[in-house]
Amino acid sequence: MSALLELRNIYRRYPSGDSSVTVLDDVSLTIRAGEMVAIIGQSGSGKSTLMNILAAWTRRATGTILLPGKHSRAER
User: What is the pTM of this model?
Assistant: First the structure.
């Protein structure tokens, strides 16, 4: 089956005072046609951040997002 969506090496950090908090650390994911996917985890583990990146609501991440016929490199 072909990939509907592919994430490669996604990182996301949020500022926290004088430092930053890493929410997504080198996340790679492939979702293929016909697959059902559930994103689960503890509070604060990055589920909403990942969903916002998947929906392209936030681009402030690093890594690559691949969609059929499209290619999007996240900001650095």
Answer: 0.77
Q: Which of 59, 71, 62, 58 is nearest to 3 (CA)?
A: 71
Distance between CA 46 and CA 67 in Å, rounded? 21
Q: According to DSSP H, which parts of the chain are helical?
A: 47-54
CATH architecture type of domain 3-68 = 3-Layer(aba) Sandwich (3.40)
β-pair type (62-67, 19-32)? unpaired
Across the chain, which has 76 residues, the per-10-residue mean pLDDT values are: 89 92 94 94 93 82 82 57
Sign (positive/negative) of CA torsion 44, 50, 53, 54? negative
Which DSSP state fits 23?
E
